[in-house]
Write a sequence for this structure.
């Protein structure tokens, strides 16, 4: 070895590594043109990017003598900008100097050409491969440069070394080049075009003449006998002859026809052998950079060095400090402003070490995988918290720069796949869904960075779309929406884009129905957008579970809104909601009129609700005249109730000008007019003709009156003059009865006035025209009376008389105006009566819309009286307190009034206005005077009454009250008032005492009538309605005939109590007019507020009636009274409308086992008024009577009839035959086009519904054709079978759509089997079974898809990922497993349908895809992943023919599609299993061809955390994160 030691005083540079670098030191490696990467071969003259600053600066702060742990030292790189260096070299074609510090091999002729690119080409950190985050290029060997490449000789620049700090640390041995060693220096002008000469191709051109340090690989270092004897030679010895020639072996073979092939085989074999012999076989020695424990000061210094791009990462990789991990790592990078690439490098170094900690020996693979996933999830949470924390610091200094850095860092970590992508995307979508509105723009900005990835996944794309919908809906309902116009415009723009590009994310029927209107508010779609919206609407409507055979949704929805308005009429948006129920406005108006005049909606409130709606809709230029005229012919002549409703509705509309009287008159003339007297008869006349008589005359013009009179004269000489005279006489009689002045000289003034009761009877039997005139006249008189200040005050008796008259004429709109005028009165008794009037008719005044106005006026008068007098009279306070308890929206006032009333009763023990004090003012002549005085003294002694004293007083008063009950004297009122005074001190204890006493009253074998005592106790306030209803329990024992014969006793208590609550009080009860009116108010309140107790009373009263009827058939019972029966039916109608399910349960045979026939009669009369027939109604009759108005009563009737059949026949054939009759009735209803039956089925009892559903379910599946059997499938294609299947589907759809969704989907294995049968028929094609193929494509497959859609309905929320990667997997229910199987079959079916021409398959593939989207939303994450493994090509799994790479399936299962790096495979070589022939072995021996090598491929998964640019300062032969042995790399 001819090496000379010569030191130049310069430290060598640390070697730069590439993926394909070998273990040779930098100055002894082969020429660099053999080491460059593929990217450098393609772009050999493109300078390195100046952005990568970590390789462009020299470490000026480090120690110059710092050495690596290897046996070779390194030289610091040239300082200054790399770009400036390249420019300085390229601008000078004849450089004079070259810096020795730039490279220890820079003077070697073979390396001068590439020195300018050496710095940027040797570090992976600066290569193009390191910039590709997801798909780094694979390391490949480099080709030799072409001989025509120009040679550039850089300038020799003498480097001025900076002051170097002395390093006393021991240094490894370093080869020192002798300073006297001659160096190559080419100065000729043509030197740049000359190629370097290396005769032996052994790297002899080291830059120095005859100096090659020993490395063991130089040809001078090869010690053999020839080298020892003859030495080494620089030139080959051409005089040495060859020992043998290959001509004799090769030339004969070349002369053959296959010679050229043989020659190419030889050359290929040589190349293969050369390749295999030079492969790297050493195992991978890659290790992530180690972490060391440093002090806080050194850690800060290290972090500052990391933030300095001038300091190389290789130097920093020696001392990565412990303790920098998780959120701390991210915060330190942000605070130190570490460049993004270097921050990602640090995160990889720390993460690789953390993950390798899970792979220590002795740990099983499952724990390792769980640990890695958990660590990745925790790291992702740290990143999310980091970004969220930085964003939330709005307002701090440099907030924008900090947020930009945090978002960029998170984006780089995401693109490098260093995060749990599912968790991270879920965090982004959750932020849009639940963040405050002020932070929504920032979340949208973050989401747009990952927009494509979000929309590639079903679970994130759907949530993103409807999160934007929800935000727009909130903005639309915000009163300050104009301030948020920029945000709404941005969100609307995003929706506009998504509608056209990602329609699949909008497929969610329930959410689409909720937010569909938002699109019309915020979008002004063009033609393409509108087409996309319509397509989305069609796709969602296919998945929406609503009965396709049901009546129009608008009509049902309108009736439901109107019924709800009767229960709680406080919706101010009722008119807009009802108007928007349907686009068919005439049909909407007609439905409203039918509802207002329906017999099945008791009360007058519905008429006033309809009148107000019609007035509100008049702004839309719609007239109710035509719809009213259309329904007149449908009203029966004997249906007096409906006729009265029509007259009242028309009267209200004529008064306000919304009913066209001229149009009605023309309509009557067009029908032929009148011909006889029966046309206008009040009882027998048709409604359409009698309506002309009932028109309000005071609201008609003179011309209309003349036309009306001309028409009526043709009907039996009807006299208009007599009609006007009757109206005039009626008004005079009213004035005389009320004490109002009559005209002077009127003869009626000399007669005795009629009594009010007789006058009210005459008014009730009069026509609506006369009654409306009376109401109008009284309204005018009262309004003018209170408008004049000189008028004398109105008396309370006059007010009560006017109130009775107005209620008799049923003109509550005029009564409302009278009450408004009376609120100006100063009389507290009149004000209290006004409050009682509103309370008694509260539902009607709510419908008119005047309840709140009158209540507010009364409250103002109460405040005014309190301010003027300092005290409020108790009657007014009590009346307003009772009214306030029922007023919706006035809860605070109600509580305040209740407290004031209680305080007033306690403090004013001797109130001068109380009835007891009134009696005490006069000498008491009764025997109860002493008791009254004792009670008054006790009550006036204090404000407390303890329970013992209350018990003593109660036991003293009750016996005397019972004696007064028997005697029916005035002592009842005195004692009742004492009880009400006692109740004030302890309401709860007193109510317990009254409950015990009422139970005692029920047990009395003989007693007076309940009407003689209970109404008085209720009206005075000492007995509440819930207390007497609580005593209505079922009879415990059968009554005896003796007890049944007594009119009042325990045997008839329930019937008597029911009659007391639902019928008007008889005369002779001893109550004053105000007390009777107050008790009537309590009766009406019980129907609405005590519906459960009242329904229980009705049920038990029916039981009592049936038991008494069995033992005393000749006795007339209370429920045999026709007025009581009418009141019972009206009460049941109100209860059915309030809660039909409760009524059905109360009247079922389980509750009334002995009253089956009676229940049949009651329910039949509820459905058909006046029908008390004993024969049961057929199912066909019930289905024919079903419509929107009778629907609750048909449901009740049908439910009870089927339950009676079940009860009577049990589980035998009778029940089955009865259900078959009902099924046949449904079939006949379907054939006749009656679709209302679909609304009846869901409201039946659960047992009946389930039985019908099971029958239809089984029948439908039996009709599905199958390819497995040998039977003839021609029948399955017949129209009869198809029609039967449609009927079954309609029944199932009606049942499912009318019930609340179950907790889980009702999918089953038979459904999967039938779906597979259809799939197999589709696969077989039309050639195999042509008779059934078309039927499957056009009917059976769509029907099966709809069948599965119906059974997929559930209340399950969308699936959520596991909160922890290592958490135990939850138990998977069988329903989810079935759902997953259905999805897999749907995927296969969709792929198969794609092969069918579109004109034949239509949109079947799209329907299958949409159904899969609906099912997959609630599929658990683990099952979703299993399904994806089954049908998709995934990273780490071997592909197969059963797998697909369809992008729709990747979207369906929310799985990211394959990237380029996910398709890498490892090739495992195996020996041939088949023996080779002798001829082949001979040729192989002749030409050196080895045996055929078989390859086995396995997936290769990249370890993203270990893809490091600068992993460690130690360089090994195979020291890369991807082992070079995997790619069969060779040494260069």
């Amino acid at each position: 070895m001819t090496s000379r030691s010569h030191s130049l005083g310069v430290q060598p540079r640390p070697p730069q590594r590439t993926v394909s670098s070998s273990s040779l030191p930098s100055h002894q490696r082969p020429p660099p043109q053999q080491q460059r990467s593929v990217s450098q071969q393609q772009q050999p003259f493109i300078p390195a990017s100046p952005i990568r600053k970590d390789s462009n600066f020299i470490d000026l702060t480090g120690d110059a003598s710092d050495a690596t742990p290897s046996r070779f030292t390194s030289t610091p790189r040239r300082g200054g900008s790399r770009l400036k260096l390249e420019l300085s070299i390229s601008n000078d074609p004849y450089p004079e100097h070259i810096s020795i510090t730039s490279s220890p091999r820079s003077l070697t002729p073979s390396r001068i050409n590439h020195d300018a690119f050496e710095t940027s080409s040797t570090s992976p950190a600066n290569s193009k491969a390191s910039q590709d985050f997801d798909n780094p290029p694979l390391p490949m060997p480099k080709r030799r440069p072409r001989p025509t490449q120009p040679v550039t000789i850089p300038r020799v620049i003498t480097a001025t070394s900076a002051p170097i700090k002395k390093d006393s640390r021991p240094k490894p041995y370093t080869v020192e080049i002798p300073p006297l060693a001659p160096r190559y220096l080419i100065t000729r002008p043509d030197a740049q075009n000359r190629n370097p000469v290396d005769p032996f191709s052994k790297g002899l051109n080291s830059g120095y003449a005859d100096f090659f340090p020993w490395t063991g690989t130089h040809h001078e270092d090869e010690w053999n006998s020839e080298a020892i004897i003859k030495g080494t030679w620089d030139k080959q010895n051409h005089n040495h002859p060859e020992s043998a020639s290959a001509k004799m072996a090769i030339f004969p073979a070349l002369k053959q026809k296959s010679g050229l092939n043989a020659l190419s085989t030889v050359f290929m074999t040589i190349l293969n052998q050369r390749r295999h012999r030079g492969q790297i076989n050493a195992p991978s020695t890659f290790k992530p950079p180690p972490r060391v424990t440093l002090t806080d000061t050194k850690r800060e210094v290290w972090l500052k060095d990391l933030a300095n791009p001038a300091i190389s990462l290789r130097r920093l990789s020696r001392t990565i400090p412990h303790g920098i991990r998780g959120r701390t790592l991210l915060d330190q990078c942000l605070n130190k402003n570490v460049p993004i690439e270097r921050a990602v490098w640090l995160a990889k170094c720390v993460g690789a070490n953390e993950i390798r900690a899970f792979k220590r020996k002795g740990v099983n693979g499952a724990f390792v995988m769980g640990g890695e996933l958990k660590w990745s999830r925790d790291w992702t949470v740290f990143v999310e918290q980091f970004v969220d924390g930085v964003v939330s610091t709005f307002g701090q200094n440099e907030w924008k720069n900090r947020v930009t850095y945090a978002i960029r860092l998170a984006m780089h970590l995401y693109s490098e796949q260093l995060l749990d992508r599912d968790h991270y995307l879920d965090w982004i979508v959750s932020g849009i869904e639940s963040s405050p509105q002020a932070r929504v723009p920032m979340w949208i900005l973050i989401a747009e960075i990952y927009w494509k990835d979000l929309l590639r996944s079903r679970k994130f794309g759907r949530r993103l779309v409807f999160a934007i919908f929800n935000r727009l809906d909130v903005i639309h309902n915000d009163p300050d929406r104009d301030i948020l116009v920029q945000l709404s415009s941005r969100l609307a723009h995003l929706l506009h884009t998504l509608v056209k590009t990602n329609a699949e994310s909008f497929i969610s029927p329930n959410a689409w129905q909720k937010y569909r209107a938002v699109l019309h508010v915020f979008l002004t779609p063009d033609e393409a957008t509108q087409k996309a919206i319509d397509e989305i609407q069609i796709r969602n409507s296919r998945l929406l579970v609503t009965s396709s055979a049901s009546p129009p949704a608008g009509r049902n929805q309108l009736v439901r809104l109107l019924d709800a308005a009767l229960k709680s009429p406080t919706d101010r948006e009722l008119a807009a909601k009802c108007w928007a129920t349907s686009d068919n406005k005439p049909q909407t108006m007609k439905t409203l009129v039918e509802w207002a005049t329906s017999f099945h909606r008791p009360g007058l409130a519905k008429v006033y609700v309809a009148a107000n709606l019609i007035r509100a809709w008049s702004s839309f230029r719609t007239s109710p005249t035509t719809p009213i005229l259309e329904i007149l012919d449908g009203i029966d002549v004997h249906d007096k109730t409906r006729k009265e409703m029509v007259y009242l509705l028309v009267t209200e509309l004529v008064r306000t000008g919304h009913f066209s009287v001229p149009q009605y008159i023309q309509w009557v003339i067009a029908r032929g007019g009148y011909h006889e007297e029966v046309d206008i008869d009040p009882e027998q006349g048709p409604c359409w003709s009698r309506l002309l008589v009932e028109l309000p005359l005071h609201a008609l013009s003179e011309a209309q009156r003349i036309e009306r009179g001309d028409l009526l004269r043709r009907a039996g000489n009807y006299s208009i003059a007599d009609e006007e005279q009757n109206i005039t006489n009626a008004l005079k009689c009213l004035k005389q009865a009320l004490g109002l002045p009559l005209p002077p000289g009127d003869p009626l003034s000399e007669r005795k006035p009629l009594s009010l009761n007789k006058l009210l009877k005459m008014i009730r039997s009069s026509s609506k025209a006369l009654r409306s005139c009376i109401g109008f006249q009284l309204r005018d008189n009262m309004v003018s009376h209170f408008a004049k200040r000189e008028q004398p005050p109105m008396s309370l008796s006059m007010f009560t008389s006017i109130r009775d008259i107005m209620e008799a004429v049923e003109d509550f709109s005029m009564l409302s105006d009278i009450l408004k005028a009376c609120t100006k009165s100063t009389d507290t008794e009149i004000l209290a009566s006004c409050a009682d009037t509103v309370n008694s008719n509260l539902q009607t005044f709510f419908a008119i819309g005047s309840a709140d106005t009158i209540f507010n006026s009364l409250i103002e008068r109460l405040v005014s009286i309190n301010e003027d007098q300092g005290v409020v009279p108790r009657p007014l306070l009590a009346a307003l307190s009772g009214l306030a308890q029922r007023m919706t929206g006035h809860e605070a006032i109600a509580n305040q009034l209740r407290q004031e009333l209680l305080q007033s009763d306690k403090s004013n023990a001797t109130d001068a206005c109380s009835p007891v004090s009134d009696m005490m003012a006069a000498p008491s002549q009764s025997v109860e005077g002493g008791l009254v005085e004792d009670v008054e003294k006790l009550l006036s002694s204090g404000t407390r009454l303890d329970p013992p004293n209350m018990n003593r007083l109660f036991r003293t008063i009750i016996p005397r009250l019972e004696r007064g009950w028997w005697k029916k004297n005035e002592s009842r009122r005195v004692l009742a008032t004492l009880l009400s005074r006692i109740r004030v001190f302890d309401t709860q204890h007193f109510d317990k005492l009254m409950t015990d006493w009422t139970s005692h009253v029920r047990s009395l074998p003989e007693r007076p009538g309940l009407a003689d005592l209970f109404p008085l106790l209720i009206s005075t306030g000492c007995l509440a309605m819930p207390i007497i209803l609580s005593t209505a329990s079922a009879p415990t024992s059968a009554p005896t005939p003796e007890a049944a014969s007594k009119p009042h006793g325990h045997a008839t208590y329930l019937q008597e109590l029911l009659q007391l609550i639902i019928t008007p009080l008889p005369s002779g009860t001893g109550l004053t007019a105000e007390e009777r009116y107050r008790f009537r108010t309590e009766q009406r309140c019980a129907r609405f507020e005590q519906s459960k107790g009242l329904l229980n009373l009705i049920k038990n009263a029916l039981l009592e009636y049936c038991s008494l009827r069995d033992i005393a058939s000749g006795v007339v019972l209370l429920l045999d009274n026709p007025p009581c029966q009418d009141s019972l039916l009206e009460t049941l109608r109100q209860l059915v409308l309030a809660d039909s399910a409760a009524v059905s349960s109360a009247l079922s045979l389980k509750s009334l086992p002995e009253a089956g026939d009676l229940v049949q009669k009651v329910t039949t009369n509820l459905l058909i008024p006046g029908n008390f027939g004993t024969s049961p109604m057929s199912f066909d009759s019930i289905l024919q009577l079903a419509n929107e108005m009778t629907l609750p009563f048909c449901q009740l009737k049908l439910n009870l009839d089927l339950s009676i059949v079940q009860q009577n026949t049990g589980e035998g054939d009778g029940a089955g035959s009865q259900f078959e009759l009902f099924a046949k009735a449904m079939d006949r209803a379907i054939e006749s086009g009656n679709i209302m039956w679909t609304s009846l089925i869901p409201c039946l009892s659960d047992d009946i519904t389930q039985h019908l559903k099971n029958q239809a379910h089984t029948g439908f599946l039996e009709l599905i054709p199958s390819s497995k059997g040998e039977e003839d499938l021609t029948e399955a294609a017949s129209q009869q079978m198809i029609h039967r299947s449609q009927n079954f589907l309609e029944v199932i759809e009606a049942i499912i759509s009318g019930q609340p969704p179950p907790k889980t989907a009702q999918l089953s294995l038979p459904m999967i089997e039938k779906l597979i049968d259809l799939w197999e028929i589709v696969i077989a094609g039309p050639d195999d079974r042509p008779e059934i193929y078309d039927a499957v494509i056009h009917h059976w497959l769509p029907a099966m898809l709809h069948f599965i859609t119906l059974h997929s309905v559930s209340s399950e929320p969308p699936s959520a990922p596991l909160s922890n990667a290592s958490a135990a997997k939850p138990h998977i229910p069988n329903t989810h497993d079935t759902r997953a199987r259905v999805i897999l079959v749907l995927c296969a079916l969709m792929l198969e349908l794609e092969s069918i021409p579109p004109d034949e398959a239509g949109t079947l593939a799209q329907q299958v895809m949409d159904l899969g989207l609906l099912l997959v939303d609630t599929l658990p994450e683990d099952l979703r992943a299993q399904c994806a493994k089954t049908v998709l090509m995934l990273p780490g799994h071997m592909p197969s023919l059963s797998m697909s790479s369809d992008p729709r399936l990747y979207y369906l299962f929310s799985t990211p599609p394959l990237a380029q790096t996910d398709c890498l495979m490892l090739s495992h070589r195996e020996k041939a299993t088949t023996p080779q022939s002798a001829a082949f072995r001979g040729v192989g021996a002749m030409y050196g061809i080895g045996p055929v090598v078989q390859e086995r491929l396995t997936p290769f998964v990249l370890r993203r955390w270990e893809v490091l640019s600068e992993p460690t300062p130690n360089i090994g032969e195979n020291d890369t994160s991807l082992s070079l042995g995997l790619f069969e790399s060779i040494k260069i």
